Amino acid sequence: MMVGWLVKAPCLGSWADGRQYNRLCYSDVAALYASDDRDRGLDEDRIPYVEAENEYPVLTGVAMWIAALPATSHGSFFNWTAALLMGAALVTAWYLHRLTGNRALLFALSPTLAIYGLMNWDLLAVALATGATFAFLRHRDGSAGILLGLGAATKIYPALLLIPFAMERLRQQRASDAARLAATAGLTWGAVNLPFAVPAFDRWSEFFRFNSARPADWDSLWFVGEHYLGVGWDPPALNVLVVVAFVVTVAAVWRTAAALPGFRAWTLGFPVVALFLLTNKVYSPQYGLWLLPWFALALPDIRLFAAFQVADLVVFVTRFQFFAEHQAVGPGLPFWMFQAAVVVRAAILILCIVAWIRRQSAEHTEPLPLPEAATA
């Protein structure tokens, strides 16, 4: 994370010379403190949703506000946020070490963590999702549900983990625990959101309107198809296609893996997150952070992990170097190189899913080095 801070440090000053692209130091954190495109009011200490706009989920908006309270500039806001995100990274690493021992290094030493950890606020959700996984594997379903609810109120993706966790409990013939997990997560999400949704529904619901109206993003396979196949995706139609593609692919992977003798349903979290990234219309650069704990938990294959890291790094470089060329602030790289990197990364994720399926057979399954209390 300190390496990541050094990477981002050049962007704590003026961006008039295009340094955010030329020096590969762009960060949403540095950009949004006093942005002109939306009245977030962070530089005025206004409460998100109640007094100001915010297009992020509630707990991310609150985290932005908390970091903004002692801040006096873009740079100090970035540093306060960095302290918060570094804490989230430490919590994640601690949980992973408790669950997997030295496999936690796949998270802690990841280049993805260095280049994307301070780009946005995703590490908060990653810490909550990893904590929920820890609680689930310790058979604390109520605590796991609370953490998933908090995670979903920070970034939607932790809600996806309800799928594998509930399936695991159902396969264990523990339907009441599966229901408790889902109900606790839903109630927690509602309890966090209601204080903002009731007094300021329009500003609170901006997150949902903003995302439903978004077109295919630069880093998505939908954008590749749109650009090279000449297909125009209307956002409402694309939203339906995204949901269908995700549900169908998850069902296909479930059907294949569930037939294998060593299948552990909770590890479906890895392909669920990977398939969400592959089928979603938005693959923001920092979304790769979501997968890092799952390499340690469910697919500790160093070759595939290294391949994903290299691909993620290449997407990072080609993306922002293309923007440098597009904005005429530097020599940059051509668009096709960026899109080729996106396709290669997607291919590697597909290989990872295939490898995860193969590991579900009894001869490939390696139990986690959980503490005794976790297996009681």
Question: What does this 3D model show about the protein?
Answer:
The protein is mainly alpha-helical and about 375 residues long. It is about 65% helix and about 0% strand. It has helices at about 1-10, 20, 30, 60-70, 75-100, 105-110, 110-115, 120-135, 140-150, 160-170, 175-195, 200-205, 205-210, 220-230, 235-260, 270-280, 290-300, 300-325, 335-360, 370-375. It starts with a helix and ends with a helix. The model is unreliable at about 370-375 (pLDDT under 50).
Please give the radius of gyration in angstroms: 20 Å
Tally the beta strands. 0
- Listing every helix as H and every strand as E from the N terminus to the C terminus, the arrangement reads HHHHHHHHHHHHHHHHHHHH
Q: Please, how many helices? A: 20
Average pLDDT across residues? 93
Termini, distance in Å?
35 Å
Largest sheet: none
Strand content: under 5%
Structural class: mainly alpha
* Anisotropy-based shape: globular
Low-confidence runs of at least 5 consecutive residues: 371-376
The helical percent reads 55-70%
Report the oligomer. single chain
